[in-house]
Amino acid sequence: MIEKVRELEREYDVKVLYACEAGSRAYGISNETSDYDVRFIYVHPLDWYLSVEEKRDVIEKPISNQLDMSGWELRKALQLLKKSNPSILEWLHSDIVYDEDEGFMNTVRDLAQKAFNPIAVLHHYHKMAKRNLKELGQGEEVAVKKYLNVVRPVLMCFMIMKSGQLFGINIWYAVDALAHNKRLNEELRSLLETKVHNPSQTKLHRLCHVDAFIEEQMEEIEIYLQNAKRRSVDITKDLNDLFRSTVKKYGQ
Questions:
Q1: 65, 100, 181, 227: which is deepest, by most CB within 10 A?
Q2: 105 shares a domain with 136
Q3: Does the residue 232 lie in any domain?
Q4: What does the pLDDT read at residue 229?
């Protein structure tokens, strides 16, 4: 994968500061049919920034049916970081990292934690869970993928409300945190293992403890959001300093 990153740098005349895996592989639920979703942050040479023209700040490069590469330009990435954008936060918490400027990423992760807005992120995952619940339907038998599309954002909310931070996106972390609830833990593991080890099994019967957990958590998320106090940490100066120093470092 690192050679694909180097090829992309040469083709677009950029420096990739960070490249990671996103999607099912980062969530810990990939199987033999899963493709690779590589996401990255990049910086242009200095002259690119010294222009009155508006320029595209995204690179999207599908390589094959099994590999997709997509990235955000440095300024765009830092702007999204300031807003606690869930997509870039997921990138930062991926366990599968292909390439990174360690100093740059240490600063980015520190700033992400400093400015983390749990309300904004919870709203995102809560809306995702509600939307996916409607698609799941009420049938006795449900699609494995659609079930997980509800379970994952609910578990993300559970972990954020539990810790006040986003410490990882691998679903197994949240399942481990529920080890005290034996029956729920067993059903969640069964669901995840079906997705990972039995990709040909596309449907299964509803899991009663998982369903009860989803219903309970959706209510708790709404209560949490109603009562949560908004917090705002302005990291604009820190982001500007990081942006300028990074462009100077790689822009010559």
A1: 100
A2: no
A3: no
A4: 77
